[in-house]
Amino acid sequence: MQTKKILIIIPAYNEQANIVKTIEEIVQQALAVSIVVVNDGSTDQTVSQARQTNASVINLPFNLGIGGAVQTGFQFALEKGYDVAVQVDGDSQHDVSYLKALIDPVLNDEVDMTIGSRFLPPYLGYRSSFIRRVGIHFFAQLISFLTQYTVTDPTSGFRAFNRKLIKVFADYYPHDFPEPEAIVVAGRYRARIKEVPVKMRKRASGNSSIRYLKTLYYMVKVTFAILLDKLKTKQKKVSS
Hints:
Blueprint: E1 6-12, H1 19-28, E2 34-40, H2 46-50, E3 56-60, H3 66-79, E4 84-87, H4 99-107, E5 113-117, H5 130-146, E6 159-162, H6 163-171, H7 179-188, E7 193-197, H8 213-230
Parallel strand pairs: 1-2, 1-4, 2-3, 5-7
Antiparallel strand pairs: 4-6, 5-6
Helix pairs in contact: 3-6, 5-8, 7-8
């Protein structure tokens, strides 16, 4: 039986202190995967650090934002014929020892997409600041109300996708704070989505792109984006 090709997509912006550790931890899992780092116009040594590893590196000439970087990874996955794409943040917050648990339901064709949730039992590890948790809970309630999905961690960027959704997101992926809206987009294609309990960690170095007043801006902007997306014409189920 032909082995399915799996690609780990790591979007990275100014992650020189974390990128090598992230890649090394993935390699230590001894899974049959390829890794691509999408360097999103970093102004530090992220790209040179990534090139010291065995990962492929796509070097964007300027900063597109997380959505543009992740979409670039999906386009790479589609072009190279990967069957499964996995998003892993470049800041080492995602505990990649949970990669197999995230990937297996997609490999087994149980679902089209998995989301690693830090809020499912047994509630392992770091769960972010109080104000961030308020925002996460708000989007969980909004998405659960507007879609057929019950989600607990809609902002999680630790996700796996089959080829059906690789095609969808290579063509369109939300660009600014994209994770909650991407769930709604997947819903338009009647995607099967499952959350998997995972552990996350506090960022070891650097700062999150969503801080202070940006949290409020994030909540307002993404709420409008989700509501607008729900007004769009429903699409047919994407074929493999």
